[in-house]
Amino acid sequence: MPASAQTPNSAQPEKPLSGVPTIDAYSKELDSFAKRNRNRALAFSKIIPEDQPGETLSGNWREFKTAKARESDYNSNHLYDVGDVWLRAGKVVVAEFEYGTSGDWSQYVTYYFRADGSLAKMRNVFGKFMGTIKIVKEKFYDSNGKLLHTRLKCYDLEIEGRRKKCTSDASQYDSELYKRVQNLPVYQLLKSRLARQ
């Protein structure tokens, strides 16, 4: 098997990840890694001051000791966005964020990073309950941040796995793009931990 066809793994961190099939395989490997290490994720949430009026929802990110500790704080009604980050060999490899507390929509965004800190893939899942549609958009990037490919699929929220025609406004549900680990909204909280690795 040629080296370029091999799936990247932790034994080959210096191998550049390029090309959509290679990045796809790498992101699937990281999905498995995150699932196996669900309890080892670093847990974050944006804290919204309780006296904040209306829907401005500005706040600061905070790290929690565990995801369970973060969940217990949900009763305080001042948590909004939440994030989980996985490290492998001292590097951020997966960052997953959940947005939306309105009850009529939700958004889950997963960022897959190479060992050099560059974004390899971003997966954005937007659920719109009023329109009963789930929009799944995946974007693939080279190590310089250039977009290589976009994959868009839409599903019916009421029937599991049933495809639905994507509307022309599907792009309005795009999420924030973080092309490097250093651009993540929780990076300042991660910095000291990464420096100790």
SSE layout:
Layout: H1 20-36, E1 42-47, E2 60-64, H2 67-72, E3 79-88, E4 91-99, E5 105-113, E6 119-128, E7 133-141, E8 147-156, H3 187-196
Antiparallel strand pairs: 1-2, 1-3, 3-4, 4-5, 5-6, 6-7, 7-8
Describe the structure.
This protein is of the alpha+beta class and 197 residues long. It has one domain. The chain is 17% helix and 35% strand. It has an eight-stranded antiparallel sheet. Strand 5 and strand 6 form a beta hairpin.
Quick structural overview:
17% of the residues lie in helices and 35% in strands.
Jot down its keywords:
197 residues, alpha+beta, 8-stranded antiparallel sheet, disordered N terminus
Please state how the strands of the largest beta sheet are arranged side by side. 2-1-3-4-5-6-7-8
% residues in beta strands: 25-35%
Mean pLDDT over all positions: 81
Q: Which class do the helix and strand fractions yield?
A: alpha+beta
Order of helices and strands: HEEHEEEEEEH
Query: Roughly how much helix do the residues carry, as a percent range?
Result: 10-25%
